[in-house]
Amino acid sequence: MQPSTLVLNNSVLVVDDDTEALEEMADALENNGLEVYIASGVDLALELARKQRPKFIIMDYLLRGCTGTEAASEIHKFLPETQIIMISALDGLAQLMTATDFGEIVILKKPLSMDRISCFIKSRLD
Q1: Is the peptide bond before 111 cis (omega within 30 degrees of 0)?
Q2: How distant, in Å, are the alpha carbons of 15, 41, 64, 125 from that of 120?
Q3: CATH no. for residue 59?
Q4: How many structural domains does the chain have?
Q5: 79 near 53, Cβ under 8 Å?
Q6: Better pLDDT: 107 or 101
Q7: Per-residue pLDDT at 23
Q8: Residue at 19 is within a domain
Q9: Is residue 73 part of a domain?
Q10: Could you tell me the pTM of the whole model?
């Protein structure tokens, strides 16, 4: 039996190994009425993604142990409908990311405007 790909409509998983940035993003998104889960590492992010099935994942590109692209590829295997939002302070991130076979990844540059992210997510809610 294949696991369900059903995602929760207003849920967001935030993945960043910078705990201060992680908490700031989570607080801002919760204040905008979104259900937020947080992970400071890839293993926890994968576990939460499987369990909570978020509609959106905001993920730092550079994580301990792997890149956000590698983690996104793994997540897409069991949550193909989840929208990935990759964040990074790196210039030229789009050039670093190769073409993916797992759909659109939105790329946002740090520092982030939490209002911008919240508006983007709300505009994509069903």
Answers
A1: yes
A2: 17, 24, 27, 9
A3: 3.40.50.2300
A4: 1
A5: yes
A6: 107
A7: 92
A8: yes
A9: yes
A10: 0.81
The reply to whether 103 falls in a domain is yes
| CB environment 46-70: b (16+ within 10 A), e (fewer) | bebbeeebbbbbbbbbbbeeebbbe
Residue 3 domain-assigned (yes or no) = no
- What b/e readout covers 8-42, taking b as 16+ CB neighbours within 10 angstroms? eebbbbbbbeeeebbeebbebbeebebebbbbbbb
Q: Whose structure tokens read 């259900």?
A: 35
Q: Give dist(CA 103, CA 8) in Å, integer.
A: 19
Q: 50 lies in which domain range?
A: 8-124
> Tokens 């590829």 map to which residue?
73
Q: Identify which of 25, 44, 124 has the alpha carbon closest to the alpha carbon of residue 82.
A: 124
pLDDT number for residue 97: 52
